[in-house]
Write a structure and sequence with these properties.
The complex is a heterodimer of chains A (517) and B (303). Chain A contains 17 helices and 19 strands. With 517 residues, chain A is α/β, with parallel strands linked by helices. Chain B has 303 residues and is α/β, with parallel strands linked by helices. Chain B has 10 helices and 9 strands. The chains are: A alpha/beta (517), B alpha/beta (303).
Chain lengths: 517, 303
């Protein structure tokens, strides 16, 4: 039996190819054994022990060694054929030699979508800032859904992003609509010319939904996160967003929404707003309109007013400062003696705060877990007293359970509890539609409303449930079906939170409720 | 054509360097840089390696379509370019990839980790039955000098005798079929297993250091590509499939997770996955034998 060898210097083929080559060479005519192997000293010894090699071979570990054993007359042709085979391109790696890796990091995600310019981050708060920094380093704007990010981290992150001409929406940013795409808890709205910047998620949702309902559209809706107008943060995101919308040709009117900002920050933001050259509607809930007004800046008392003013300005009209719509509509209920109090059970924090402000004007003290005045704090949040409005989205209620926009159980229980209180005349509710929210909130609520009003009726009382649906006709929950279901359950629906609250307040001040005790 | 690097292994240079294309495969390409180190470019579906850059490659991309062996390459301003190729690789957004094996605490005295190890071992054995025996075992059986090497290596490691361990390792270097010979694959896995179980034990770390010094030199007996893997393993680094499996054992993950990671590691190359896995599992058990039922006793090749 003859042997033949061929050394190919610095020749590298992957292992699969080498195995295939060995197999191919072994099938050549006249060949009985064949090996294509890297020519390390140990492999040369191995081939010698296997009888495939004899004598010395001038080869190194980086060389490919072909060793053949077979008929002497056939080996030359076999070696030539083997060399020829090596000149062919390496076969494409077959399936199963590697596996596709699903993106497990921002970098990998960006690899799959090179053109992406925004990262939405939703991790536990303790990890969120680090992820956001990574995203900014990668040149991405950030929507930071996560809450519980340390204020110092937020400040550092926003400054870091600002230095790179990037925007960080959040932390605690639950809503945005960017280039027509709803992000997180957001509604499907028509695209248009009104830009919104909000430090309040449900505030942004209410304003964008009303604008949509009234036939206008949104260019961009940017959430800043709830802490952005804190004095130490300085409104970095709101100021960046203002500048961006000022430069945006598709935006003709800008709306700013926030709970009361730090005074020095408010002043800075208002100055910047005035300089945009575009009309800016400002709803800083509870702020003095006189302090807000500037040449280009229009104050709005409520979210509804802000939407109405933006629509008026987009149409080239001066915002209406007259009576708000729907405020004089009476409640079609006759209350029993002793029914005197309003209980607001909100899933949206800004709705709750707005309700507190509006009710306080007419009714005085309003207890809440998120009160306008610290003295009005409800110490036992599980038990209402007098006029009470509760933000059920507060951390106190959401620890270990989903947000009430997703899971209605907690609010449903509270509705029944309030309905059993003989002093309660009216319950205020918000129903929020859109992405992220419960797929059928009215379906969840209707049986509870039947039960609540039914049990009150048995006790000789009429309970009015007043509320509004924050949503649009294009939302996945089907707005008209949701409203029909709620009306069928006896709920009085208004167009906005402000209208619902004013209706309830009017019933008390007019003596319709609490007339006798 | 400009593509982005998705990740850079801990040893991969991302600053200024110059080099030359050393070898080209469909899904990978090696650049030998001035320092003599090897930088491996990998297409996106390939797992990370310590000395590699994973690149976001478009569909149907193969390196031979773009680069040639011997072509000069350089990195300037965060971009790798080749003298004759239209291909350029932007490294600026590459994330550092690293799994620190030395930070793991696999201890097979722990029942949960031993159980996870057993799942991996059984998966390896099932793979062998369904496919081929590890190439290293076949090579050892054929090479007289290597027969009995693994039991000797396990004994020397258990006794923390570095010199004896090196003697046992020597016949494995460059031994067996494959671009990265089976013996090398086994050693790379074995070292990964040792690093994953060394913890902060000074004697074990000293053993690893001594063997590492010797092995760094001895690795010149194998080819450049395989040598790079051995040198990474000496430093406590391993490719993603092995490193992820190590993490899975460290966390004592569920059976399904351990099995999935083991199977992923077994898919590497023709037999490299099997050999590396065998080495890793032996390495994990070298200092602490897992408490196993008799039916699961270790079958040491060559013993």
């Amino acid at each position: 039996m003859a042997r033949a060898t061929k050394v190919i210097r610095n020749f590298y083929r992957d292992s699969v190819s080498l195995m295939q080559l060995s197999s191919t060479f072994a099938k050549l005519p006249g060949v009985e054994q064949a090996s294509a192997i890297m020519a390390s000293a140990n492999n040369i010894s191995l081939l010698k022990e296997a009888g495939l090699l004899a004598g010395t071979v001038e080869a190194g570990a980086n060389d490919l060694l072909i060793a053949l054993q077979g008929n002497a007359e056939a080996l030359d042709a076999a070696l030539a054929a083997a060399e020829s085979a090596l000149k062919q391109p390496a076969p494409t790696a077959g399936h199963g030699t590697s596996r596709a890796i699903a993106p497990r990091s921002l970098e990998m995600g960006l690899g799959d979508m090179i053109e992406a310019n925004l990262a939405l981050i939703s991790t536990p708060g303790e990890y969120a800032a680090a992820e956001a920094f990574k995203a900014v380093r990668l040149g991405l704007n950030v929507m930071l859904f996560s809450d519980n990010v340390a204020l110092q981290d937020e400040i550092a992150l926003k400054r870091f992003a600002r230095d790179r001409d990037l925007i960080v929406m959040g932390p605690d940013c639950g809503t945005a609509i960017i280039n027509g795409i709803p992000l997180a808890f957001a509604n499907v709205v028509t695209r248009g010319t009104i830009g919104v910047v909000a430090a309040s998620g449900t505030g942004l949702q209410q304003v964008t939904c009303l604008i949509d309902r009234w036939g206008h559209g949104i260019s961009q809706a940017i959430g800043t996160g709830s802490h952005d107008l804190h004095k130490d943060v300085g409104g970095i995101t709101m100021l960046q967003s203002l500048n961006a919308l000022a430069a945006d040709r598709s935006t003709s009117v800008i709306v700013l929404i926030s709970k009361p900002p730090a005074p020095e920050v408010a002043e800075h933001v208002l100055e910047a707003a005035d300089k945009t050259g575009k009309p800016v509607v400002v709803n800083f809930l509870g702020a003095d309109p006189a302090r807000i007004r500037r040449a280009n800046v229009f104050p709005a008392d409520t979210l509804e007013d802000a939407a109405a003013a933006a629509v008026a300005l987009a149409e080239g009209r001066t915002p209406d400062t007259g009576s708000p719509p729907g405020s004089s509509r009476p409640i079609p209920s006759t209350f029993a003696a002793g029914q005197r109090y309003i209980r607001g059970l909100y899933s949206g924090g800004t709705f709750c705060y707005e309700a507190s402000l509006l009710l306080k004007k007419d009714l005085g003290r309003i207890y809440s877990n998120t009160p306008v005045e610290p003295a009005d704090r409800l110490h036992d949040v599980w038990t209402s007293r007098e006029h009470t409005v509760i933000d059920l989205g507060d951390d106190l209620f959401t620890r270990g359970r989903p947000h009430p926009m997703i899971d209605h159980r907690l609010r449903n229980e509270r509705i029944l509890k309030e309905a059993a209180d003989p002093q309660v005349a009216m319950i205020l509710l918000d129903i929020v539609l859109g992405y992220g929210s419960h797929p059928d909130p009215a379906g969840e609520l209707a049986p509870v409303l039947h039960q609540a009003t039914g049990s009150a009726k048995k006790a000789g009382r009429q309970l009015a449930v007043i509320g509004f649906v924050c949503g649009t006709a294009s939302d996945p929950q089907d707005l008209s079906k949701q409203e029909d279901t709620l009306r069928s359950a006896g709920m009085i629906l208004t167009e906005s939170n402000a209208q619902a609250v004013r209706m309830a307040a009017a019933a008390v001040t007019a003596g319709q409720a609490g007339a006798s005790s | 054509m400009r593509v982005f690097a998705l990740s850079a292994g801990i040893e991969a240079p991302t600053g200024r360097f110059s080099g030359m294309v050393h070898s080209v495969f469909d899904r990978a390409c090696n650049i030998e840089i001035e320092t003599g180190a090897l930088l491996t470019l990998l297409s996106s579906e390939k797992p990370n390696v310590p000395n590699g850059l994973r690149i976001k490659t478009p569909a149907r991309f193969t390196f031979p379509d773009f680069v040639r062996v011997g072509e000069p390459a350089a990195c300037r301003g965060g971009t790798v370019r080749f003298t004759q190729s239209v291909l350029s690789i932007d490294l600026r957004i590459a994330a550092c990839w690293h799994i620190d094996l030395g930070g793991l605490r696999i201890d097979l005295h722990r029942r949960d980790q031993a159980a996870a190890w057993l799942v991996a071992w059984q998966t390896l054995r099932q793979h062998q039955r369904g496919d081929t025996i590890p190439a290293i075992i076949e090579a050892m059986a054929r090479a007289e000098g290597a027969f009995g090497t693994i039991p000797d290596l396990l004994d020397a490691t258990g006794a923390l005798q570095a010199e004896e361990a090196c003697t046992a390792i020597e016949p494995l270097i460059g031994l067996g079929p494959g671009l990265t010979p089976a013996g090398d694959d086994f050693l790379v896995g074995y070292l990964a297993g040792l690093w994953s179980t060394a913890s902060v034990d000074t004697a074990r770390l000293r053993f690893l250091a001594s063997v590492g010094v010797w092995l760094s030199r001895a690795a010149s007996e194998t080819n450049v590509i395989s040598r790079a893997h051995i040198q990474s393993a000496v430093r406590g680094h391993a490719s993603e499939p092995i490193a992820r499996l190590a993490q899975t054992l460290d966390r004592a993950d569920t059976i399904d997770d351990v099995r999935a990671e083991t199977q992923a590691a077994l898919q590497v190359g023709h037999s490299s996955g099997t050999d590396g896995m065998a080495g890793f599992l032996f390495g994990c058990a070298a200092w602490t034998k897992p408490s196993l039922p008799a039916s699961h006793c270790l079958e040491v090749p060559g013993a």
